[in-house]
Amino acid sequence: MLHTMYVDKKLSGVQCVQTLSRLNRTKSGKTDTFVLDFVNDPEDIVNSFQPYYTSTVLTGETKPDKLYDLQHEIEARVMNE
After folding, report:
1. What are the E-state strand segments in 1-81?
2. What percent of the chain has pLDDT over 70?
3. What are the structural domain ranges in the chain?
4. At what angle do helices 42-49 and 13-21 cross, to 10 degrees?
5. Which residues pair with 35 in a beta bridge?
6. What's the chain's Rg over C-alpha atoms?
7. pLDDT digits (tens, 9 = 90+) for 9-34
8. Which of 14, 9, 1 lies closest to 37, judged by CA?
9. Is 34 helix (H, G, I), strand (E, B) or coil?
10. CB atoms within 10 A of CB 49
């Protein structure tokens, strides 16, 4: 039932594949997954998956401040309620 994973350590090779693949398990009603990675470069993740998968798709990077922007937006909405 895992949907979201926060990564705060360097991952590579088979350890990377095993860790991130835990999100790939299916569950009724589960339509997507999300990884917020504070440490690894997207190229390193793709390179770790290449020996095991024919294609690896990353949807892109986010701006580092996006998390804080969302926090401030949520706090502002709560204060206005």
Report:
1. 4-7, 34-37
2. 91
3. 4-80
4. 90
5. 5
6. 15
7. 999 999 999 999 888 888 888 888 88
8. 9
9. strand
10. 18
